[in-house]
Design goal:
The structure is a homodimer.
Chain A: E1 10-12, E2 15-17, E3 19-22, E4 25-27, H1 45-57, H2 77-86, E5 94-98, H3 102-118, E6 122-127, E7 132-135, E8 140-144, E9 150-152, H4 154-164, E10 172-175, H5 184-192, E11 196-199, H6 204-212, H7 225-240, H8 244-252
Parallel strand pairs in A: 5-6, 6-11
Antiparallel strand pairs in A: 1-2, 3-4, 7-10, 8-9
Helix pairs in contact in A: 1-2, 3-5
GO cellular component, one term (chains A, B): cytosol
Keywords (chains A, B): ATP-binding, Iron, Iron-sulfur, Metal-binding, Nucleotide-binding
Protein name (chains A, B): Cytosolic Fe-S cluster assembly factor NBP35
């Protein structure tokens, strides 16, 4: 996702050194420590806890504006260990990411209660995969035959739009994808008294940028997803009175 | 997802009794054991292992055609415990679910190697969220103004289609969503020598059915997703010579 495959962690006089994407973005992952990237890391909790502790204590992070720990879903070993290791440093809090359906929100309610129980402030909830928005002309179009086969008619549709329906060419088509008729993350946040930060739609261009290790902010390609992310970042900065200088640094990379 | 919220596990003479969706589908989940559904289960590995063992050994499952264990992503406590507890019974194998992008496939390669290492046969890999397919008329359409605002023009577009472009009304619009230019799960399966079972598109109707606890096979609503699932089930039955009678039983519920 950051284009760092195959990189190694280096040992410096001060401890392990993170791998740098850019002068202002360092990364550590167990992926850097495996001889074979496909190898499974078959570890039970205590070993995972040991590594998390090493990543926080034995790594020379230098001066940091933000330390972001990307954790798996759940409320188990990783989460307990992170809270135990970082608790003393006075961490700002947790950002919780969900998708819009009830089946996800059920789990996210548990995560929020975990944070409340262990005394971690919930900085806010992000609703990811919040519908798909894409320019009409970027879709593929198929016609289903009577026997259930799909025939690709994209070329024909694009010609049709150009010649007969030019008014439709610039439209953006949106699908809800996941059912959010129950109110989604926004309603859950109101019910649980935590900030709602915003929605990020499924944007194929953002997915592509992530695959290629490109930032979605350096060009105009991610026209649907990048503005949604910016709104969330702005809100996070504002709500928590983080320095705006840091924000501008972040966009630059 | 199965419409079982608020149900309790019962104690019978033979042990714990699963909660039945239907006479041929019993379910057990830690969710049934919590007094408050929002409460976080803050357990480290050993307690999770204990519960998994109880679910397998202390529950009166009666005669089963299939026992499906839905596990979280990863190769840690849950997976090791399941393999240890079920190893002696001669389990058929593991079905691995992924999404099409490289960032998911990197993790799934590790899962496959985990299975190989612990001697669990990989029955196959399913590519989920494999693009979005939806009838054109089910989309919402917006026009972006010069200031970046979105104006909903869905009504106008639907009228336009009806009056001026009726040929377009029956089309299905497809978006790749996640970048699969690297070949997706199918290519990975070829490389790793495991069966590829098929692709399941993001189908808003299936998402809705799951939210409401409805089977996608009982009516024609899930016209895009249900046929995709059927192909996968058929392949699984065929590859592994499972009894076809069982398959028909399964569709009935």
């Amino acid at each position: 996702m950051l284009g760092l495959e195959g990189q190694d962690i280096r040992q410096s006089n001060f401890g392990w050194s993170p791998v740098y994407v850019d002068s202002n973005l360092g990364v550590l992952s167990i992926g850097f420590m495996l001889p074979d990237p496909d190898e499974a890391v078959i570890w039970r909790g205590p070993r995972k806890k040991g590594l998390i502790k090493n990543f926080l204590k034995e790594v020379y992070w230098n001066e940091l504006d933000f330390l972001v720990v990307d954790s798996p879903p759940g409320t188990s070993d990783e989460h307990i260990s992170i809270v135990q290791c970082l608790g003393a440093t006075g961490m700002d809090g947790a950002i919780i990411v969900t998708t819009p359906q009830q089946v996800s929100l059920i789990d996210v309610r548990k995560e929020i209660n975990f944070c409340k129980k262990v005394g971690v402030k919930v900085l806010g909830v992000v609703e990811n995969m919040s519908g798909l928005s894409q320019p009409v002309m970027d879709f593929k179009f198929v016609r289903m035959t009577e026997t259930g086969e799909h025939i690709d008619v994209s070329e024909w549709v694009r010609e049709y739009f150009k010649e007969k329906a030019p008014e439709l060419q610039d439209l953006i088509a949106c699908s809800e994808v996941f059912d959010s008729s129950s109110g989604g993350a926004e309603k859950m946040c109101r019910e649980m008294g935590v900030p709602f930060l915003g929605k990020v739609p499924l944007d194929p261009q953002i997915c592509k940028a992530a695959e290629e290790g490109r930032s979605c902010f350096i060009d105009q390609k991610c026209g649907v997803g990048a503005p949604a992310l910016k709104i969330i970042i702005e809100k996070l900065i504002e709500n928590n009175e983080f320095s705006r200088v840091l924000l501008n640094n972040a966009y630059a990379s």
